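One record is given unchanged without comment:
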Amino acid sequence: MPEHITTHEDPAYTSKPPLRAIKLILAYDGSDFSGWQKQKNGRSIQEELEKALSMMHKHEVRVIGSARTDAGVHAMGQVAGFYTDIASIPADRFVLALNKLLPRDVRVLSSEEVKPDFHARFDASLRKYRYFLICGGTPDPFILRYAHFIPYYPDLSILNAMAFVALGEHDFSTFASAQDKSESRFRFISESVFFLERNLLVYQIAGNAFLWHQVRSLVGTYLELEKKAKDPGEAAVLMREVVESKDRSRAGPTAPACGLFLWNIEYGDRVHGHPRKQCNKKESRLADPISPVWEGIANPSMPMRADRYLSDIIKLMTRSQLKARNAHLFCNGVEVKFSHKLKSKDRLRLEWKEAPSEQIEPEAIPLEILYQDTDVYVIDKPQGMVTHPAAGNWHGTLANAVLWLDNEARQNIQIQDSSLISSPARAGIVHRLDKDTSGVIIIARTAAAQEFLSSQFREHKAKKEYFAIVSGVPPESKGRIGTWIARSPRDRKKFSVSEPGRGKHALTLYRVCRTWEVNSCIGDRSLDTASKGAKSFMYSLLALYPRTGRTHQLRVHCANIGCPILGDPIYGKKDGVFPEATLMLHAHRLKIGLPSRSEPSVFSSPFPTRFRDTIAYLDKHGHNIKATD
């Protein structure tokens, strides 16, 4: 659906003498069409409409559409305009006349007379699209023609975090087809939101114009990044990087045409021909926040509070998000409170404020530096420190600390070559450790170093060794755990082993280093099971070697073999011997190439205090029953 804007006069609007200008609103099933625009080889909606009008008028009639939808794309509110010299047909009767001549997959919904200089395309001030998805389960075969099926349930909060990044004016080159010939790829997006409607997931986007394949490319990117992001904050960061890259290869695959609908066109003040000011980054941060809008028809099974309907039923946003974003709800055109009881077929409009995106601010936080040069820092990350700012953790992160560290270093030295300080994206973060995982992490200090390091992680050339204290004993002293991992359909904050083909393949090698047996009736601790009699607890120290880098991979794999990591609040249970334990997972060693060295370097972090204390207790009170090299 390219929006190539031209300025020449179209014959359809310069025929002499013009009599009446007619505006049509159309709906069509685009499955069997090559698109809106007439094609040499292929059936088009424009061609079918002009054919029907020409039969009525006994001469050729040209029509202009408001948007050029692609092959397979549908419409519920396409607008078309033409001139008629038939005075005997009232404007509103063109609906009946045309529907008798048009094929069944094209319908005229309304017709009206408009001012003589009306232009369906250039007068449009806003175009709105919807993309429909069927998620999980067995799809209805009658819906597949009009929605894209994905075999899992994506996290709605993560999708909306990314959708909000698209709001405002951006250069959307990342999401444009290579065939798009637009002079400018800046577009202004006034609405971008995901919501549930009946059994479908809907993405609604509105803007002044769109690039060729822009909406479908956005949807494909959202779905791709949703699998990688751990939370909405990280998702927003990833999406912002993709948008700012202006690199088509960074976007996800283009979503199929079947799910896309041109929903409606609005007309107001013309925007064509008036160049929009391109503000710099500083101005954009100080600009007024964007006011996103969602509209829909309520469909509760019984009268229900509006806040509950929005948060629990269609899952647009939580009640706390409604409050934090200063949201306003309109029901049937009247603003109402969120305690208002909604009934079936109530027309809803929700408006809220999205604050401008924040920059990562340097913060003076002490760090344990294992190694540093002009290209990298190697840090021993403590447990409890988040790697990168995200929702709920905008400050106190490793990224904040590294930026401050780098700023201080640059102030203390004289840089002869400015290329040496080209700033890397995301504060130089090239890989992550979970908040409660401690150990070795490498940070790039320049953009060139960041790409050098990132390529090694992408190509699985960087080698990592972790240690974990787990509950239980693995089935073998050495082994490999190869599974597929996907988001849990029951809890979107968790990942789980899935059937082959769903999610991503993950491979972990492991080695059992030590194993202990502890009796609940010995030791100087007050054990949860003491009152129930003697009970033995088994623990193992494992060396873990991930060959892939999936989210929560080691934690999921350990739990999958019946040995959850001690202190894991997500994949484990409260332990009888160590009820206060925190996550016993430590990134011990990293082998990776550095820009300044010809051979790979190895960096290691010693066991932290929580590991040493736990092992000391197990050695004192437990029976060491197994050990391997």
Observations:
- Residues 125-268 form a domain with the Alpha-Beta Plaits fold (CATH 3.30.70.660).
